[in-house]
């Protein structure tokens, strides 16, 4: 296997140089191989969201190296960082953030159109993904007409629409009740495996984390365990 995400010596502090400075990440070393699904477990405030944002090129580290899909990101212009993010990375958040005025199908089609995919191909890809997670029958419904679990499954499809190489998820089922969380997470894992994705998934749920290839534990800005 080849590496899909590599972080070496990554640090991040907020309010740098001030008495109130907070060292969020302190020398993070982490590597994900192609096709590997890794759980990220951390208490609140330990830096997991910052780690995901830096890994996904939404934030910039103060120091250290980040490689995505084999490409070194240090020194990339904003334009090139954006292009790499669009081509290689998919994001899922705790809250679905679907566009309320568009249907489930349209929410999955739009990112593809922005990436230059034709309407026909975008709709075919969207319907395929919605079918995989069991919500194809709801494709014509707007988010307000969907249950919480259905909304999050549509959000999964949107994140995967442009065929990313790396999926980053921040508590993707954290806003759902336990029974729905289990069903939705199973649907996510099935699609991730079928698509051959590399994934870093943050969760507080140790049972869900145990279904992944391995678990990374983060505390006070440091990786404590990479078993």
In short:
The chain has a single domain, classed as P-loop containing nucleotide triphosphate hydrolases (Rossmann fold, 3-Layer(aba) Sandwich), CATH 3.40.50.300. Helix content is 35%, strand content 27%.
Write the layout of secondary structure elements.
Elements: E1 3-14, E2 22-33, E3 37-41, H1 48-55, E4 63-68, E5 71-72, H2 78-88, E6 89-92, H3 104-114, H4 119-132, H5 148-160, E7 166-170, H6 178-195, E8 198-202, H7 206-209, E9 214-219, E10 222-225
Parallel strand pairs: 3-8, 3-9, 6-7, 7-8
Antiparallel strand pairs: 1-2, 1-4, 4-5, 9-10
Helix pairs in contact: 3-4, 3-5, 5-6
Count of domain modules: 1
Structural class: alpha/beta
CATH architecture: 3-Layer(aba) Sandwich
How many separate helices? 7
Compute the average pLDDT: 88
Report how far apart the termini are: 18 Å
| Main pleated-sheet profile | 6 strands, mixed
- Give the overall shape: globular
CATH superfamily: P-loop containing nucleotide triphosphate hydrolases
Helix content: 25-40%
CATH third-tier fold name? Rossmann fold
Top-tier CATH class: Alpha Beta
The fraction of residues in strands falls at 25-35%
Low-confidence stretches: none
Succession of helices and strands: EEEHEEHEHHHEHEHEE
Number of strands: 10
Alpha-carbon Rg, integer: 17 Å
Biggest sheet strand line-up: 6-7-8-3-9-10
Protein name: ABC transporter ATP-binding protein
Family: Belongs to the ABC transporter superfamily.
InterPro entries: AAA+_ATPase, ABC_transporter-like_ATP-bd, ABC_transporter-like_CS, ABC_transpr_LolD-like, MacB-like_ATP-bd, P-loop_NTPase
GO molecular function, one term: ATP binding
